[in-house]
TrEMBL record:
InterPro entries: aa-tRNA-synth_Ia (IPR002300), Leu-tRNA-ligase (IPR002302), Leu_tRNA-synth_edit (IPR025709), M/V/L/I-tRNA-synth_anticd-bd (IPR013155), Rossmann-like_a/b/a_fold (IPR014729), tRNAsynth_Ia_anticodon-bd (IPR009080), Val/Leu/Ile-tRNA-synth_edit (IPR009008). This is Leucine--tRNA ligase. Residues 14-213, 495-688 form the Aminoacyl-tRNA synthetase class Ia domain. GO terms for molecular function: aminoacyl-tRNA deacylase activity; ATP binding; leucine-tRNA ligase activity. One of its GO terms (cellular component) is cytosol. A motif ('KMSKS' region) lies at residues 658-662. A motif ('HIGH' region) lies at residues 51-61. Residues 311-481 form the Leucyl-tRNA synthetase editing domain. It comes from Candidatus Roizmanbacteria bacterium RIFCSPLOWO2_01_FULL_37_12. The lineage of its organism: Bacteria, Candidatus Roizmaniibacteriota. Its EC number is 6.1.1.4. Pfam families: Anticodon_1 (PF08264), tRNA-synt_1 (PF00133), tRNA-synt_1_2 (PF13603).
Length: 948
RNA sequence: GCCUGGGUGGCGGAAUUGGCAUACGCGCAGGACUUAAAAUCCUGUGGUCGCAUAGACCGUGAGGGUCCGAGUCCCUCCUCAGGCACCA
């Protein structure tokens, strides 16, 4: 062992040793042998989102795996049976893109990456413990169970064939992922991408919408659904599910008897009852509707010989402010629009031209583009009118792309006085904007500016029988009223849509279905699983899915009737693969089902699930969905698969930008490991920022933790108890001056003179580190250990200094100077160093550092202290409650700190004594000067004297 | 736009949840050791005014409020980052 901290000399050695000693062997094997799985230690399942097989491991992977590794190691030392596995998410588009671009088969590309990444992962020194049984989602052994799950869903009606809008390249004849669209054009051929309805497989996740909602725990523990997940996820998912209670209102669309739309003049000539006269502020009883008050002329008009009802349009709304509804807007894909386009319903000629143009234009835009609000509202008039039920007036029907077909009913009623979006639309197209709700200060004037719009709250006005009723109550009344009148139906809608899972791609799980000319869609029988992905296909897009190019694979016999049939050439979304993988981790080679129920019962739910915040809405929700489905199958007996979720941030490049090859700001972990060693990189990733934060890599700050490890390393040289130094300092290199300088802490023999203060500090540090690891605050845990080393060094220096002074008087300085010049100064002085910590104390400190710096601590543990068994199998130290003799109490006068009192612990209870002590202080006296004052004393914390 | 989370020294960030703001680290300045540099070690380091290791005042995005006491709680505003389903 050399004095200088040179991690390269031992890090690889220990990793090798740990492997041969089976230190991180998977606990799964022993599970098999155990008679009862529940016996023995408590389990702790630490899970990190499985990495995608992109090739190079980057420093972000280190970040996401190192922090959980520290928790896992800590838990193991604390007596848990820890399961900390890994696997690879191996299917997906990038593999196929690489294939297209570089002419490598996706499988070869992926497997090569698995190999490279595994090597890199292993230099991280994590205790990941399933390398022999690593799960790779592109192996048939794995995706076989994807297919099994799909079939189970199909059996239960949860998987179905449906249509959805997709990005479509008309030239390549294929569906494109968003990432394959550049400036609205296909990445390969540059053709303009359009939205096209494509038939595909869906999972009925909407059936689980209510179960996926996060409900606050009534006990107010902060937990929801019995588990501890970030609020960000709970709120985000609930918004995404978007449960809304409202009403579907059906409007009658009218035209002339001959079908021509120009009826406005006729309508105008009809007499309408004037509504909207305020009926005082008298409250209306909810229960009694003014059944007969609204005898407006609608029904009469509808009976008019010149007008007929040609269609109905249903609008969904949560806020039926219907006295203020002055128009309807349809999505460009709305069936009514289709009827106009196909001339089933004839609109005015000039409008017809405009409508065709408008719809064409909006088809080209992706939904995402359409959602970007705040741009100018656009739209065309259909030339038709609907009748507002409560005002009896005809209101124009428009088409606009701000209305999305798959939200609600694809048609909205415009109430411009109480909705900003409707207001803008009405303003732009000159549609009336009546006020039906008072403003925050009771305003009743006309609505002219955006600021006048009232979206929530207020009291109804100009609304006939609703006048004077508060907004939300009035909405409920309106809904009840419409329901009673048969004009609408109360409905619950969800923003969540069914999950489209089929991809017209090669590199994924084949959909285990067969299209038979006689029987239609037929499941592949369970016994025939897996439907293996054929190696030979043409994965250049040519108007059909790549799998369809392998005739041999495509042609099968129908399992039902034996007729010639075709396989489904589509593959499953990779989110399907990752929606249940942690169950497979538990029994990676199990062949009687997706997983071994017995093991799953023992090891799950997952105790902590680490991952990126980018999966707030996608992956984690699908994973929860699958868990609930598994519960319904009787495979698990809980609703939530992870008891706790922690989401990490991103390590940015040194320039503060996201790391990317093109920017040249990528930190390659291999490089930094070569420079500082694994332990330093691990420590730095913990120390640089909180786990949830996002921030830049710093080449400077990493040197700080390296220095820290260096100091720890050197400190432990004192405990070099196998007396190497007795035989001279042959291990000290003469050229290495810094080592020699350090050697003033390096005595030939030592005695212990325990320092109470330092031992109290050690216990505090153990406590702090223990708490911080539990809370995943690794940065402050390291800070605490740094503080401890600072204190330790300081005391060592004092001991050293004291002794030197007493022995050599004023010549200390020269002595020290001389020491640094000689190669074996200690022999010369023959100093006996007093150590403030015993070996067992020192070991405790080493233990709490070991999850962070596993290699260095192991080296010291075994080589300095001569331990036979790994430090990582040792027991986590327990902090002792040590009562410190004195406590510092700040004394404030009028809230400003004026002095610090050092008070004996026993006196803390006694307010009088503490106050008396404070009053003796000159610094405090000065501010009191015989004035009257009030005493506020918080025991053991602070004393505040308030002068009036 | 909506939602979520932030704004604290030159920088990354602490602060037992209302009790000494700036722990720990980086950087910087000075010193020791070196022919020199690197490395290492020591000292200092929020701002303003002081001969100052005397002291005073000001300081946690802005403004107001509650309180003996506010980075922390309340109100109004400014601002930044992330998310908003065929992306791993």
């Amino acid at each position: 062992m050399t004095i200088k901290y040179q991690p390269k000399e031992f890090e690889a050695k220990w990793r090798e040793k740990w492997k041969t000693e089976g230190l991180y062997g998977t606990p799964l094997r022993s599970l098999n042998q155990r008679a009862t799985l529940g016996a023995g230690k408590k389990k702790f399942y630490t899970l990190v989102e499985l990495p995608y097989t992109s090739g190079d491991l980057h420093v972000g992977h280190w970040f996401s795996f190192t922090i959980p590794d520290i928790l896992a190691r800590f838990k193991r030392m604390s007596g848990f049976n820890v399961f900390y596995p890994i696997g690879y998410d191996a299917f997906g588009l990038p593999a196929e893109n690489a294939a297209i671009k570089h002419n490598i088969h996706p499988k070869d590309w992926t497997l090569k990456n698995v190999e490279v990444m595994t090597k890199q992962f292993q230099t991280m020194g994590t205790m990941l413990n399933n390398w022999e049984d690593v799960v790779v989602t592109c192996f048939p052994e794995y995706y076989r169970w994807n297919q099994w799950i799909f079939l189970k869903m199909y059996e239960r009606g949860l998987a179905y064939r449906g249509k959805a809008l997709s990005n479509w390249c008309p030239s390549c004849q294929t569906v494109l992922a968003n990432e394959n669209i550049e400036m609205g054009k296909c990445w390969r051929c540059g053709t303009e991408v359009v939205q096209k309805e494509v038939e595909q497989w869906f999972l009925r996740i909407t059936k689980y919408a209510d179960r996926l909602l996060w409900a606050r725990n009534p006990q107010g523990s902060g937990n929801a659904n019995g588990v501890d997940w970030p609020k960000q996820v709970q709120v985000g998912q609930n918004n995404w599910i978007g449960k809304k209670e409202g009403i579907n209102i059906t409007y009658k669309v009218i035209s002339n008897k001959d079908g021509s739309p120009e009826i406005l003049s006729q309508l105008n000539s009809l007499s309408f009852r004037t509504l909207g006269q305020s009926k005082s502020d008298k409250k209306v009883n909810r229960k009694s509707f003014p059944q007969d008050q609204l005898k407006h002329p609608v029904s009469k008009n509808l009976g008019s010989p010149s007008i007929k009802v040609i269609d109905e349009i249903t609008c969904f709304t949560t806020t039926p402010v219907n006295f203020g509804a002055t128009f309807l807007v349809l999505a460009p894909e709305h069936p009514f629009v289709k009827k106009i386009l196909t001339s089933k319903i004839k609109s005015d000629k000039t409008n017809f031209e405009k409508i065709i143009k408008y719809v064409e234009h909006s088809n080209k835009m992706t939904e995402e583009q359409r959602k970007i609000a705040e741009k100018d509202k656009t739209g065309v008039f259909t030339s038709f009118y609907a009748i507002n039920h409560v005002t009896g007036k005809p209101i124009p029907i428009w088409i606009s792309d701000f209305v999305l077909m798959n939200v609600g009913t694809g048609a909205v009623q415009g109430c411009p006085g109480h909705d900003y979006r409707d207001f803008e639309f009405a303003k732009k197209f000159g549609i009336p904007i009546p006020r039906v709700v008072t403003g925050p200060n009771g305003e009743k004037g006309p609505i002219e500016k955006k600021e006048d719009v009232v979206e929530h709250g207020g009291v109804m006005v100009n609304s006939d029988f609703l006048n004077g009723i508060p907004f939300s109550e009035a909405m409920q009344m309106t809904m009840d009223y419409f329901k009673e009148k048969g004009w609408g139906k109360r409905v619950v809608t969800y923003h969540l849509r069914d999950w489209s899972i089929s991809r017209q791609r090669y590199w994924g799980t084949p959909v285990p279905m067969i299209n038979c000319p006689n029987c239609g869609i037929v499941s592949v029988p369970e016994k025939d699983l897996p439907v293996e992905l054929p190696y030979v296909v043409d994965f250049m897009p040519k108007g059909k899915p790549p799998l369809a190019t392998n005739e041999k694979w495509m042609n099968v016999k129908c399992p039902n009737c034996g007729a010639k049939a075709k396989r489904d050439p589509e593959t499953l979304d990779t989110f399907f693969d990752s929606a249940w993988y942690w169950y497979r981790y538990v029994s990676p080679h199990y062949s009687n089902g997706p997983f071994d129920k017995l093991r799953v019962n023992h090891l799950t739910p997952v105790d902590v699930y680490f991952g990126g915040s980018e999966h707030t809405l996608g992956h984690t929700m699908y994973a929860r969905f699958f868990t609930k489905f598994f519960r319904d199958l009787g495979l698990v007996d809980y609703e939530e698969f992870a008891l706790k979720r922690i989401q990490h941030g991103v390590v940015l490049g040194p320039d503060g930008n996201r790391m990317s090859k093109s920017k040249g700001n990528v930190i390659n972990p291999d490089d930094v490991v070569a420079e500082y060693g694994t332990d330093t990189v691990r420590m730095y990733l913990c120390f640089m920022m909180p786990y949830e934060a996002t921030g830049p890599w710093s080449d400077k700050t990493i040197q700080g933790v390296h220095r820290f490890l260096n100091r720890v390393w050197r400190m432990f040289q004192i405990y070099q108890i196998n007396q190497k130094t007795e035989n001279g300092s042959q291990n000290i290199r003469k050229s290495d001056k810094s080592d020699i300088q350090f050697s003033r802490f390096h005595p030939p023999s030592s005695s212990f003179s325990e320092n109470k203060q330092l031992i109290a500090k050690l216990n505090k540090t153990i406590q702090k580190v223990t708490n911080d690891i539990e809370k995943i605050k690794m940065n402050t845990a390291i800070a605490a250990m740094m503080e401890f080393i600072n204190a330790w060094e300081e005391i060592m220096q004092k001991l050293e200094g004291k002794r030197l002074r007493s022995q050599f008087g004023e010549e200390v300085k020269n002595e020290v100077k001389e020491k640094t010049h000689t190669s074996s100064p200690l022999n010369k002085t023959g100093i006996q160093t007093q150590l403030p910590l015993t070996i067992s104390h020192a070991k405790d400190f080493l233990k709490i550092l070991s999850p962070f710096a596993p290699h260095m601590t192991e080296e010291i543990w075994r080589n300095v202290f001569g331990e036979k068994e790994s430090i990582h199998l040792s027991e986590w130290p327990k902090a002792k409650e040590l009562v410190t003799e004195t406590v510092t109490i700040p004394v404030q006068v009028n809230g400003k700190v004026r002095d610090l009192l050092i008070v004996n612990s026993e006196l803390l209870i006694d307010e009088k004594k503490v106050t008396d002590l404070a009053l003796k202080s000159e610094k405090v006296k000065k501010y009191l000067e015989g004035k009257k004052y009030k005493i506020i004393y918080v025991k053991g914390k602070i004393l505040n004297l308030v002068v009036s």
